[in-house]
What does this fold into?
Amino acid sequence: MTGTFVNVAAIFLGSLIGLLLKRGISERVNTAIVKAQGIAVFLIGLTGVLTSMLSVGADGELRSDGAMLLLVSLAVGCAIGEIVRIEDRLNSLGRFAERKFKADDWAKGFVTATLIFVVGAMGIVGALNDGLSGDSTILFTKAMLDFITAVILTASLGAGVAFGALPVLVVQGAVALLAGVIAPYVSDEMIRMFGTVGYALVMALGFNFLCDAKIRVANLLPALLIPILHHYIVLGILLPLFGW
It folds into this structure.
């Protein structure tokens, strides 16, 4: 788990530097930075979605795959999130954290950081390599990227970003520790579709920053489970059961 520990430390260190920078930023400049970050976050999400969905066929033509699963994942995930009221519960936790740590916009920073730091193939593939062979190269690279991202995000969104390191520790740590068990059941296709849905949520975050659209992104988090369930239940059980 060396790579995961380094990744978590990089996020905390970046957040600390970001907090120090935040003190010298005026409200007007902070608002402008948030808008600029919105552009960057939206483009990160868009690039991730396009990279995951588009491929070049043997004939050289550009092909798109996974649009229907993305649509179903977002719809089902949104319904589950609204019923469970994830956003409301997270906001309640955020208000407690804001009182406890005097951290404004805690929930916004936490959700934004969690999605950016956790979704994507680098974390999953890197943690698998770390757990199976002790090769932390991918996670070291991710740690550098997350460090820079943490500095920038924290400078505008506050201390909630630092807590985004905790889901990284849980998710990547679990994958690394259980790598030998789960590796045979993790396919490139599943990681690709998980990333597609995850990056779509990142796009929604960027859209919120830019347009103040108030998309309840936290309520969309269950959508990340749908590609995994689709891979194991639909592709792994139902289709073979009916001989398809």
Observations:
- Residues 2-19+26-241 form one domain.
- Residues 145 and 169 are 16 Å apart (CA to CA).
- The two ends are 40 Å apart (CA to CA).
